[in-house]
Design a protein that fits this description.
The chain is mainly alpha-helical. Helix content is 70%, strand content 0%. It has one domain: Orthogonal Bundle (Helix Hairpins), CATH 1.10.287. The protein starts with 10 loop residues before the first helix and ends with a helix.
Length: 112
Amino acid sequence: MAGDDSGAPDVAGLQRRLAEFARARDWGQYHTPKNLVTAIGVEAAELAEIFQWLTPEQSARVMDEEESAHRVRDEVADVLAYLLQFCEVLGVDPLAALSDKIDRNEIRFPVT
């Protein structure tokens, strides 16, 4: 698995793995920007569903129970996988996009 010295996977390596996975199954035909952004929304809604009826206190403890923690990790993975595939298809560097957005927000929302 691609990664830095810590052994953690890197974004480019994960994007390659996702692309290879889809290519091996001939799923590329379905990985249009429209379909991928729709999938992001669906998976984000599935993540939100876990928290839908929890109190703020319960939501803060959702990772304490293995069953709910597993569901959260799976939905986070689904959202991220589709987001990375979306970025790959459109040629967006997600880390550069985030860095640029933080830069703009620091200017837009200065510390007072």
